[in-house]
Automatic annotation (TrEMBL):
<dbReference type="Pfam" id="PF17648">
    <property type="entry name" value="Luciferase"/>
</dbReference>
<feature type="compositionally biased region" description="Polar residues">
    <location>
        <begin position="12"/>
        <end position="29"/>
    </location>
</feature>
<dbReference type="InterPro" id="IPR048273">
    <property type="entry name" value="Luciferase"/>
</dbReference>
<feature type="region of interest" description="Disordered">
    <location>
        <begin position="1"/>
        <end position="30"/>
    </location>
</feature>
<protein>
    <submittedName>
        <fullName>DUF5519 family protein</fullName>
    </submittedName>
</protein>
<feature type="domain" description="Luciferase">
    <location>
        <begin position="78"/>
        <end position="144"/>
    </location>
</feature>
<dbReference type="InterPro" id="IPR040841">
    <property type="entry name" value="Luciferase_dom"/>
</dbReference>
């Protein structure tokens, strides 16, 4: 799989190291958060629902049964493959193929979920940092589009994932 991101500028944002896993600095301006969400929920077949696993106010991207053809590790819970946190945070959690996880982290666009680092949830569960401007919306939509393709069964995960629980 070929997936390359530009390097994210500036220092990493501050995040919590436990659940709920939240971004506490470098959050999106309100208009950037609203635009990111508007465009995120335009993905074909995506249903917008309250997250089944995140904080109140988080909005999930859920695929209908007929389109949720990806492997088990492409989903957080049910057919929810990603969710966007409320505006005070602005980050997203999503499931990605492992090579994309490595690229996301290496280029500074996100981090592993703390529960993934502890081996409680799959290693391909990540936080993508909140976009700070229009250009970063485009990068985050590219990452989200990859998660969507993974959940639809359009992308392979070249390495086995240990599913816990």
């Amino acid at each position: 799989m070929s997936f390359e991101l530009p390097s994210r500028s500036g220092p990493r944002p501050t995040t919590t190291d436990c659940a709920p896993h939240e971004q506490v600095s470098q959050n999106s301006p309100p208009e950037i958060h609203a635009e990111f969400k508007r465009r995120a929920f335009e993905l074909p077949f995506v249903e917008r629902r309250p997250s089944g696993i995140s904080v109140p106010g988080a909005e999930a991207l859920v695929l209908p049964h007929a389109h949720a053809c990806g492997p088990r590790e492409a989903f957080m819970i049910g057919r929810e493959f990603a969710h966007v946190h409320p505006g005070y945070d602005g980050s997203s959690h999503l499931m990605l193929p492992l090579p994309v996880v490595e690229e996301l982290i290496a280029k500074g666009w996100g981090e592993s979920h703390p529960m993934a680092r502890q081996g409680v949830i799959p290693a391909n569960a990540v936080m993508a940092f909140a976009p700070r401007d229009e250009a970063e919306i485009d990068v985050m939509l590219r990452v989200l589009h990859t998660s969507w393709g993974f959940a639809r069964g359009k992308l392979a995960n070249p390495a086995p994932i240990q599913i816990h629980g």
